[in-house]
Amino acid sequence: MTHAVVCRIVVLGSPGSGKSTFSHALAAGTGLPLVHLDDLYWRPGWSRPSTPEWERTVARLTAGPCWIIDGNFAGTVRQRVERADAVVLLDRHPWLCAAALVRRSLRLRRDALLGRQPRDYLPAGLAADDPPVRSLTALVRKAAGFRGRELRWMRPALAACAAPVLRCRSRRSADRLLRHLSARARPQPAAPAGAESALMCTCARRRHHSGPLPNPPRQSSRPTRPVQERST
């Protein structure tokens, strides 16, 4: 557990592990600006930026004084963790993640059939019927293989970074960590101006989160139970 003030936090984890939900709650509890990498990577028509362009975007994000960055993208994870004060790794069991993906897919399909705006988070450039969202088989396969493939590629960067890597294997440990980080975070500075503001999360305006955001955690005089911390 980190006891220093934190103002730059990276959130990693398998699809279906709850990264976006955790990041929304963390942003609500800390006041730090939130960026979803999926919002910036996926563009209308299922297009994506070139590798050099994407690396420049990530460098621009991490140069900021404070942020929460949600997303994996193993090719640029080193850029992010080198600038982070804390790295959160949501490492839930692969089949729990797969089950969460199935439930989310059913909700998205139901909303599409009823002509309703999705309540679940969707990347800004994608619709519910675009392949990266619609392909449940591919998403479940990615969740099932996250530890053996994507996390394996991230491990060298995580092992080399100076920031603590805070691994949560359950929802309960994630909730404890959320309370701890909310108490250690630096308050949000003035909102970014110009083009920088376009990079920040707009989920509250687009209503793509799963229901209302959680209330900021209450400050308690009782000591917070430690969360198991491991460097992967």
UniProtKB/TrEMBL annotation:
It comes from the Bacteria. SUPFAM superfamilies: P-loop containing nucleoside triphosphate hydrolases. InterPro entries: Cytidylate_Kinase-2 (IPR052922), P-loop_NTPase (IPR027417). Transmembrane segments: none annotated. Residues 202-232 are annotated as: Disordered. This is Adenylate kinase. It comes from Streptomyces lydicus.
